[in-house]
Amino acid sequence: MIEGVFGWLAAEAMPRTQQLIWLVLPEEECVRNLESRPIKSGEDDASRSALLQWCREYRTRQNANAFAGHQGLYDQFTGEKHILGSRQEIARFLSEFP
């Protein structure tokens, strides 16, 4: 499992990947989740604000750690793959997972 923030690492792992599961939750939901989590050690208002802005720009950034980069990996993958776009879809997928 590789988190999307490590898109460059995901690209390296693709030749050995058997199944790809892409979680594409709405940015608003991700921002709310970030806003509700406790402040981490070493985090300050400026770094938290930068993280929230980075999250909001997910669909407009053009790099390996953004929607465009993830879409490219997904499109090129020829194995079993899934896109899950809501918490309900994730829960259903997990309930059916062997």
In short:
With 98 residues, this protein is mainly alpha-helical.
Give short descriptive properties of this protein:
single chain, 98 residues, mainly alpha, two-stranded parallel sheet, 5 helices
Q: Can you describe this structure?
A:
- The protein has 98 residues and is mainly alpha-helical.
- The chain has helices at 7-13, 27-36, 45-56, 67-76, 87-96, and strands spanning 19-23, 80-84.
- The mean pLDDT is 90.
- A two-stranded parallel sheet has the order 1-2.
- It is globular, with a radius of gyration of 15 Å.
- Helix 2 (27-36) packs antiparallel against helix 3.
- The relative contact order is 0.22.
Percentage of residues assigned to helices? 40-55%
Order of adjacent strands in the largest pleated sheet:
1-2
List unreliable stretches of 5+ residues: none
Q: What gross morphology would you assign?
A: globular
- Strand content is 5-15%
Cα radius of gyration in angstroms: 15 Å
Number of strands: 2
What is the mean predicted local confidence, pLDDT? 90
Give a short account of the largest sheet. Answer: 2 strands, parallel
N-end to C-end Cα span: 17 Å
